[in-house]
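Deviation from plan, reported transparently: adenosine monophosphate complex.
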Amino acid sequence: MSTDERYCFIGEWYDSQASMTRTYQVLFYPSDNSIEMFDVKTRRTFLKRTKNEAAKLTDFFIGNTINIFSRSIKIVDFGDAFTARCIGRNQERTLAIIKPDAIRNLGDIVSTIYENGFTIARMRMIKLSQNEIMYFYGEHKAKDFFPRLVEFMISGPIVAIELVGSDAINRWRSIIGPTDSQKAKEQGSHLLRARFGTDGTRNALHGSDSATSAQREISFFFGSKYGTNTACYNDTTCCLIKPHAVAEGKAGQIINAILIAGFQISAIGTYSLDKVNAEEFLEVYKGVVHEYPKMVEELMSGACIVLEVRSQNAQAVFRDFCGPADPEIARHIRPRTLRALYGKDKVKNAVHCTDLAEDATLEVEYFFRILDN
Ligand code: AMP
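Because the crystal trials were delayed, the predicted structure below was used instead.
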């Protein structure tokens, strides 16, 4: 790697004090993980070239929000032709759908996504109406399997995932295998449709077939109001997979552990919290827990995955399953808990769960009612 290799992006930051969006040129130097920023309007240096150990080139993709010295900067474009050419090639996008028959395999599928080097840009569990499904699959309207397909796709929740990676469209299709799950089984037991599908309709997963379809399908699920989230707000509690655990590719294993333990995941979404949101969400810990400022920093350091977890007495039972807040202690006294298995320290402890029974619905609502709107 050349020591002066640098990539240029356009980033936006919402300045809540001035109630305006500021635009920056954001330069990233992979050789020493440093970042430099210029205010586009005033043409002034905003941040001198400064090391930021947490920054990774793979985080710089359009649509992602990156935490740069406590500011949530949203990457909105490439800043020069060199960056567009070099980075754009590695950042193809595709749409994956986990269909109703594979929802119970969500953890394994998310793990496979990470093992294959994809980034999950956005993910949401939704239910589509019959009309929405018919519109989404409009090109198949005249086919004999169409009624079967529509009936299947409205039979339960689905999870839409925007994947980013090199050659994402073709690679994702080759990981899931042919449309007919029986053919997939003949081609290889590792193929996702072979593992989780049954036939040509109940085939567990979807993958966009071209760049044009990917664009249309991503904006259907993430750029419009189609579908409603599946949060149900009763017998539920909130689980937030923290940014460090998401970045380390552990989200699939965590989801798997939650499902194997018998909890239902009734809603899911990705969120990038800014400072105001992170402070608001963690407000109950302010002045109570010594680590509060660091907890806020962690929460706004990257994307998190939020789950609505459902069971009888969900808040107490799930909190117990997460284990002591300090993973070191958890590893000694409760080695099978989520924090013992996936946490690093008291702040990067893999998951946040609702600590007080009376807050469970409020925390779930914070994401799926307030931030979603
Ligand atoms: P595609 O747009 O090719 O991914 O097709 C959309 C979905 O329609 C597939 O994932 C299947 O669920 C369904 N489908 C496609 N072809 C058939 C078929 N020959 N028989 C039954 N279902 C099909």
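Residues 140, 145, 149, 179, 200-201, 203, 206 surround adenosine monophosphate (CB under 6 Å). We consider this an acceptable substitute for the interim report.
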